[in-house]
Write a structure and sequence with these properties.
Radius of gyration: 21 Å
Organism: Tsukamurella pulmonis
Pathway: Carbohydrate metabolism; galactose metabolism
GO molecular function, one term: zinc ion binding
Family: Belongs to the galactose-1-phosphate uridylyltransferase type 1 family.
Oligomer: single chain
Protein name: Galactose-1-phosphate uridylyltransferase
Largest sheet: 11 strands, antiparallel
Length: 365
């Protein structure tokens, strides 16, 4: 049986953007205050565009207004901290557990039709429809996902599931991507613990590539690619990190990054909203254990990206899983994407996946 979805408190910010507050089951409903900031109303139509690269077919979002987004504010002016006065923050409340709101500087927004189509064979541009949301994991400015209690981390997973189901129901949305960037080395400009959700009007290049590989595998081998990967890693065991009743975590066979872990539910589901209560509980526990291991690896907060792969419930190919990876290759060195990686998507790694697994197993609680 799938689990019950949390019911948010919904409201609007000064410019009309939606905000949602989530709390633990049985807790009093959060009380949303009034946003008193003087903000111009958000545009009714999309303000970004999507252009197609004629060489690769990849889509590129053109969003010049994002140049003005908030950049490393002092703690007292953090837009993600609770502000009961409603004067400086995106979250006009006394306190909150998890808050979600539409990004003030979105890459994608609006529900207008995609646009007139190609200008010519080389130039294709459509409206940047879709939605971008910010997910504040906690009101604690100095906190971290890894330090959340289990029930709080489970709530975040439930929030991701809630938003995934609701956003996939929008006719203009093709893919929902939940992710977290952590650390200045990754490019984070707001240290308050948070992630983002992008609701794309198209399938992203990474998803297109993965689905194409899955289709090819099914045609050649007669089975599901993701199930085969999971079974092979469990049978091999060399790179296995955690294996529980409902969840498996392992370092992938061809890891690109100095630290990289993939996390699969043991049952084949397409997205977070399809997990049962027990599966969601277990996934939250494994996810926390891995993030804590990341921080223990070099005895310091590890910069990382947590990337959730999700698919529509009716997708012919796809398997929910998370990919966690870091650019830190040693305690005092970072891996930069240089010529081969940035110029050719040809990754070179300094560590064997087996060595990565050995290091993480040594620090997993």
């Amino acid at each position: 049986m799938t689990r019950h979805s949390p019911t948010p408190t919904r409201g609007a910010l000064a410019d009309g953007r939606e905000i949602l507050l989530f709390d633990l089951p049985g807790a009093p409903q959060p009380v949303l205050g009034v946003d008193h900031r003087s903000l111009a109303p958000r545009p009714a139509e999309p303000v970004t565009t999507v252009r197609r690269d004629p060489q690769t077919g990849d889509r590129v979002i053109i969003a010049p207004a994002r140049q003005d987004r908030t950049y490393k504010p002092v703690k007292s002016m953090c837009p993600l901290c609770p502000d009961p006065e409603g004067l400086s923050s995106e979250v006009p409340v006394e306190d909150y557990r998890v808050a979600v709101f539409e990004n003030r500087f979105p890459s994608l927004a609006g529900t207008a039709a995609p646009g007139p189509g190609p200008v010519d064979a080389l130039r294709t541009e459509t409206a940047g429809v879709g939605r971008c949301e910010v997910v504040c994991f906690t009101s604690d400015h100095d906190g971290a996902f890894a330090r959340l209690p289990h029930e709080h981390a489970r709530l975040v997973l439930d929030v991701w599931a809630h938003r995934t189901a609701e956003l996939l129901a929008r006719p203009e949305v093709e893919e929902v991507y939940c992710f977290e960037n952590r650390g200045e080395e990754i490019g984070v400009t707001l240290p308050h613990p948070h992630g983002q959700i992008y609701a794309f009007p198209y399938r992203t290049p990474r998803t297109e590539s993965i689905v194409a590989r899955a289709e090819d595998f099914r045609e050649r081998e007669g089975g599901d690619l993701f199930e085969a990967i999971l079974a092979a890693e469990v049978a091999d065991g060399t790179r296995l990190l955690i294996r529980t009743e409902h969840t498996t975590a392992f370092v992938p066979y061809a890891a690109k990054w100095p630290v990289e872990v993939h996390v699969y539910p043991n049952r084949h589901v397409r997205n977070l909203s399809e997990l049962t209560e027990a599966e969601a509980d277990d996934l939250a526990a494994v996810y926390l254990a891995l993030l804590r291991a990341f921080d223990a690896l070099y005895d310091a907060p590890l910069p990382y990206i947590a990337s959730w792969h999700q698919y529509r419930p009716d997708a012919e190919e796809g398997y929910l899983h998370a990919e966690l990876f870091s650019i830190r290759r040693s305690a005092d060195k970072l891996k930069y994407l240089a010529g081969t990686e940035s110029g050719r998507d040809a990754f070179v790694t300094d560590k064997t996946p087996e060595a990565i697994a050995d290091g993480l197993r040594a620090v997993i609680e």
